TrEMBL record:
<feature type="transmembrane region" description="Helical">
    <location>
        <begin position="335"/>
        <end position="352"/>
    </location>
</feature>
<feature type="transmembrane region" description="Helical">
    <location>
        <begin position="276"/>
        <end position="294"/>
    </location>
</feature>
<dbReference type="InterPro" id="IPR050375">
    <property type="entry name" value="MFS_TsgA-like"/>
</dbReference>
<feature type="domain" description="Major facilitator superfamily (MFS) profile">
    <location>
        <begin position="35"/>
        <end position="443"/>
    </location>
</feature>
<feature type="transmembrane region" description="Helical">
    <location>
        <begin position="102"/>
        <end position="119"/>
    </location>
</feature>
<keyword id="KW-1133">Transmembrane helix</keyword>
<feature type="transmembrane region" description="Helical">
    <location>
        <begin position="221"/>
        <end position="238"/>
    </location>
</feature>
<feature type="transmembrane region" description="Helical">
    <location>
        <begin position="35"/>
        <end position="54"/>
    </location>
</feature>
<keyword id="KW-0472">Membrane</keyword>
<keyword id="KW-1003">Cell membrane</keyword>
<dbReference type="InterPro" id="IPR005275">
    <property type="entry name" value="Lfuc_symporter_FucP"/>
</dbReference>
<feature type="transmembrane region" description="Helical">
    <location>
        <begin position="306"/>
        <end position="323"/>
    </location>
</feature>
<protein>
    <submittedName>
        <fullName>L-fucose:H+ symporter permease</fullName>
    </submittedName>
</protein>
<dbReference type="Pfam" id="PF07690">
    <property type="entry name" value="MFS_1"/>
</dbReference>
<dbReference type="InterPro" id="IPR011701">
    <property type="entry name" value="MFS"/>
</dbReference>
<feature type="transmembrane region" description="Helical">
    <location>
        <begin position="165"/>
        <end position="188"/>
    </location>
</feature>
<keyword id="KW-0813">Transport</keyword>
Amino acid sequence: MNSSDTTDQTRKKGFHLFKLHAEENDDGYLNRIPIFQFILLSCLFPMWGAAASLNDILITQFKTIFTLSNFASAFVQSAFYGGYFIIAIPASLVIKKTSYKLAILIGLLFYTVGCSLFFPASTMATYSIFLVALFAIAIGLSFLETSANTYSSLLGPQKSSTLRLNISQTFYPVGAVAGILMGKYMIFDSGASLDKQMSGLTGQARISFGEQALQKTLLPYKYIIVILLIAIIIFALTEFPKSKTKGNGVKEAKISETLKYLIHNKEFVKGILTQFMYIGMQTAVWSFTIRLAMSLNSNINERDASTFMVYSYIAFFVGKMIANVLMDKYSPSRVLKWFSVAGSLSLIYIIFVHNMSAVYAAVLVSGLFGPCWATIYSKTLDTVQDKRHTETAGAIIVMSIIGGAFLPLVQGLAADLMNSMSYSFVISLISFVVVFFYSVDQIKHNNL
């Protein structure tokens, strides 16, 4: 091969500092796991973990500063997860027409823009502008999740796709813990709770105090922007596989054809509904754990209560690690069943035991979320036998994240109506029971 041939091949493939060392099969999976690319892709998971956990901080902060009900404060999650719902299909179309890598780069760019919008939002000091900034972040995260969840399952042999996605998901709580710690020490103050500090203030003094508190929300997002810019550069310089099925002359499916196929796929629909309930439950539990702690102990402040969220995300990490080990010996559906039973019992404890031990039960529930998302996602994607529909199917599973916009509102409303944060966790209990029945159905359906 002469130098001109080499130059032509380089031009066709593009310049990449970090090369790919794996071959792509006809079904889109790889013959082996490209370690560097897989690790790099897995590093995206803590990025949206940090954004999601900061929402739990913002809900508590905004509730006091803007004098919101539990229902109204939950709109933080509605703006966030609503963005996922709206953008997931467009993101899948970008993947379908271009590549997973380009969709990831677009996601990182929108994430950066959304974080930057916190600067004018903190200056304008209105709740609605913060919701706009969160929606912009969600646009970026929708691109990232639509790409990364499916892509992670494809970066290697098909037989280990569920385990691979679970391993990538294990990185999520690392970012979540980082987000909570940034919120705890950069946003929340020590001393009396924010509510107590503002209770004696009126008029301009209260407004000024609130504006100063809102300025603190900028600090975590400054660091996130720097990390995102570095990630954009590294991804741009790394070669990734297309991970698309070889057409072999088969005409590409239209979006209408894909939707018709998926709607009539009963197992796929079951997975979507279960993922909707699971994400809603996960978001609701994490949204109100801080509020639960403060409702059960009026002597602690926001910073102290946020420590329980640090414990929750550590438990989530440990739960995922335990689930990964168990899945090496037992089927993912059986592991999901065991975790959902324990999770349901823990939520019953939260509902009926009104002391601080219930907060530790909420921490335990977070650990029992371990196998849920990745197992439900992978099992649902596996029901798509016609691989022409894979990208759109992955996007629709991500769209089920809209549960995170809906169920926290329901639980917040329940807390307001019953005047009890503890009793409101019945909404999360119902959701974990749904996950249990899904796991039982999967065991029966697949004779596991």
